[in-house]
């Protein structure tokens, strides 16, 4: 009889522990708090869903950039303003990936984000030349191939 009571108590404790772990693991606030203590403060953690959203925003801007760059006539101020706007938006999006040279849960991004931001800045500056130089702006989509191989 004593063994049966002891077994029931042990089973109750195990079930309580499993239930507690499940509840805490499914709560995003608790998971965030746990990450705060398990990752170093300079670690840039980007949840996968947020990371994919950022990458899709980049893809949309690359598509817009390619559409403008395919225009036969890049003369005048209109295309230049549009390309500068797109490049500026891409710079803002890149800030969602965190500070430069900080380790994160996406190591390829952490390694290449500084160079990508430099490419965006150089492309915008080349458009300020007289006449505007679109070459670097056209190569921005190619910068994506550092991480994304053409299929």
Task: Report on this structure.
This protein is mainly alpha-helical and 151 residues long. It folds into 2 domains: 2-38; 48-146. It is 70% helix and 0% strand. The chain contains 7 helices and no strands. It has helices at residues 2-26, 28-38, 48-69, 77-95, 107-127, 135-138, 140-143. The chain starts with a helix and ends in an 8-residue tail after the last helix.
Write the layout of secondary structure elements.
Blueprint: H1 2-26, H2 28-38, H3 48-69, H4 77-95, H5 107-127, H6 135-138, H7 140-143
* Broad structural category: mainly alpha
Q: How many separate domains make up the residues? A: 2
The amount of beta strand, in percent, is under 5%
Q: Work out the helix count.
A: 7
Low-confidence stretches: none
User: Major sheet, described briefly?
Assistant: none
Mean pLDDT: 80
């Amino acid at each position: 009889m004593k063994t049966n009571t002891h077994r029931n108590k042990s089973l109750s404790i195990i079930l309580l522990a499993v239930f507690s772990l499940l509840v805490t693991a499914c709560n995003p606030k608790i998971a965030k708090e746990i990450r705060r203590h398990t990752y170093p403060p300079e670690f840039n953690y980007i949840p996968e869903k947020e990371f994919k959203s950022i990458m899709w925003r980049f893809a949309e801007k690359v598509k817009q950039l390619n559409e403008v760059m395919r225009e036969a006539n890049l003369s005048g101020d209109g295309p230049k303003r549009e390309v500068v706007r797109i490049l500026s938006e891409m710079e803002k999006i890149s800030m969602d990936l965190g500070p430069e040279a900080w380790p994160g849960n996406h190591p390829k991004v952490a390694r290449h984000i500084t160079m990508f931001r430099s490419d965006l800045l150089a492309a915008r500056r080349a458009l300020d030349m007289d006449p505007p130089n679109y070459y670097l702006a056209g190569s921005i989509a190619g910068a994506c191939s550092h991480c994304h191989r053409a299929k």
